[in-house]
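Here is an idea for our session: we take a single protein and study its fold together. Which protein we use is up to you, so please pick one and set it down. Once you have written the record down, we can walk along the chain together:
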Amino acid sequence: MDLREEYDRLLRYCYVKTRDRALAEDITQETFLRFWNARAYEDTGREMAYLYTIARNLCISAFRRPRTVPIDPEAASSDTGSMEDALVDRIVIREAMAGLPEDLREIVLLRYVNDVPVTTIGKIMGISRFAVHRKLRTAIGLLRRRVERGDGDDG
């Protein structure tokens, strides 16, 4: 397991979950500290599932605490043009993702943003790989309908 690559993936995962760069960095560091201190993962072949489980639990705990909404400095200082189109696309996708149930949103994030294998996602979520595939199909279908309609409604 390449720790640098996994650190970056976990940081991205935590950032998407929290929308706060500093908090995501703190959670990622805490994840690795707990990972190394626990040693419960040794010789099980489930290091990735264990890392993501720790990160997921820490992100959930972070949601329970009051937080502020960060300002995206890149969006505030960028020029216009194609940046406007990219911003509109990000907003549409973000709104479509926000309309998904939490479990579907998390599975999409793990699979398509962090490229986590389906089997590992199943271990993280406590479901079978077949259930992961079913939930991914459901999520993609919902996202496709929402983006095509341009709204956040399901039906």
Notes: The two ends are 43 Å apart (CA to CA).
